[in-house]
TrEMBL record:
SUPFAM superfamilies (UniProt xref): UDP-Glycosyltransferase/glycogen phosphorylase (SSF53756)
Top-level lineage group: Bacteria
Domain called Glycosyltransferase subfamily 4-like N-terminal: residue spans: 24-187
Protein name: Glycosyltransferase family 1 protein
């Protein structure tokens, strides 16, 4: 293998479990990475399950891999392996590094293929997969799932994680000994306080003097929708005047609408429409503990919103507690309610913490962040070549 020295020398085989089937933070980050690499002259080939009507067009060349729909969550699919046709495509593409982004059977086979070819394999870790079972009454599965993930990630040459707090979790779990950061950026053309639109709020029945407690996310239970709902109940019980605005869609939407009948559900929003919706909130309340970075949190901060989040991986690396928002121990309904209440009742506190969050959000440049991944690719290739000598 010829030693690449520049980003333009890279040939990346990227394996994704969901490259563009639905819209979430992980696949948006992957598409943005591919776009950046292609702009720098690198070659990239993406291997992922595909569907007839994806959420958005893929960035770069996409090769479909065999998959099946997840029972009960048909919008997601599990990639099932690496058939001969895909192996031939890989051989013809001749990558100098393999990047896997979901611990599915295809990714397992891709790592094996990379090791057989003497190529480095990098895994990007996008979500707390080990925490998901607790939201479906299967917490007993977590230790087994953690062990399976450890076996997979230890077979990779290195991992990249979206936040330092999550990287430390992975170190503590002994997932790998080479873990670096691939943070996330924010699109400031979309997420900016100037997109606040009072006329749009009025069209939803929200008065100008009402304080909006907002959530924008894919509506699935692992985002802490139960904690959000219980907290709103406590605010209502204490007579705290506010309006709830929910932006997003997903399989738990019907449950969420029934649970919060007085909330405004604006549905799925994208691009500048999403920026308008977020900037038109007054406080972000996001109690999820499954985030590894917290794109939602960063985007709200860029819109000058104070944020109330669970004290968990991702948010701990973004929010300065008591300065740009509040970090509350997971599941502490009363503490969440008091933190949200403070913002609802104090416009001065909202303004001060919103301004601090906006300033912090400026540290996240997509080009700088994605170049760090390219630099990690180059380092791993150098190490692999040096190990053969």
């Amino acid at each position: 293998m010829q030693l690449p020295t520049r980003t333009s020398d890279l040939r990346v085989a990227l394996f994704s479990g969901n490259y563009n089937m639905v819209t979430d933070g992980a696949n948006k980050a992957l598409n943005r990475l591919v776009g950046y690499l292609l702009a720098q002259g690198a070659q990239v080939r993406v291997y992922s399950p595909t569907v007839e009507n994806p959420a958005f067009p893929p960035t770069g060349d996409l090769v479909s891999v065999p998959s099946f729909a997840i029972p009960g969550r048909a919008e997601y699919r599990i990639a099932t392996g690496l058939p001969a046709s895909v192996r031939r495509d890989l051989a013809e593409f001749a990558p100098n590094i393999v990047h896997v982004s979901s611990p599915d059977p295809t990714a397992h086979r891709a790592v094996t293929w990379a090791r057989e070819q003497g190529l480095p394999a990098l895994a990007s870790v996008h979500t707390r997969f080990d925490t998901y079972p607790r939201y479906y009454n299967m917490a007993w599965v977590e230790p087994l799932l953690t062990a399976i993930l450890r076996r997979f990630y230890r077979r990779c040459d290195a991992l990249v994680a979206p936040s330092e707090s999550f990287a430390q979790v992975l170190r503590d779990q002994r997932m790998n000994y080479d873990i670096s950061l691939w943070s996330r950026g924010v699109d400031r053309h979309i997420f900016d306080a100037s997109r606040r639109d009072m006329a749009w709020r009025r069209s939803l029945g929200i008065a100008d003097d009402e304080v909006v407690v907002g959530l924008f996310s894919r509506l699935v239970m692992e985002k802490g929708l139960d904690v959000f709902s219980d907290t709103i109940d406590e605010l209502n019980g204490k007579g705290v005047k506010h309006r709830v605005l929910i932006v997003g869609d997903g399989p738990a939407r019907e449950w969420f609408e029934a649970r919060l009948p007085n909330a405004v559900f604006a549905g799925y929003q994208a691009g500048t429409d999403l920026g308008r919706a977020v900037a038109s909130m007054d406080v972000l309340f996001f109690p999820s503990v499954t985030e590894t970075f917290g794109n939602v949190t960063l985007e709200a901060m860029a819109c000058s919103l104070p944020v109330v989040c669970a004290e968990a991986t991702g948010s701990e690396s973004l929010v300065d507690n008591g300065v740009s928002g509040r970090l509350i121990p997971p599941g502490r309904i009363h503490a969440f309610a008091e933190a949200v209440r403070a913002y609802v009742e104090s416009p001065e506190l909202r303004a001060a913490h919103g301004a601090a969050g906006e300033a912090r959000s400026r540290d996240f440049s997509w080009d700088r962040i994605n170049q760090s991944v390219a630099d990690t690719y180059l380092r791993l290739i150098r190490q692999k070549v040096a190990g053969r000598k």
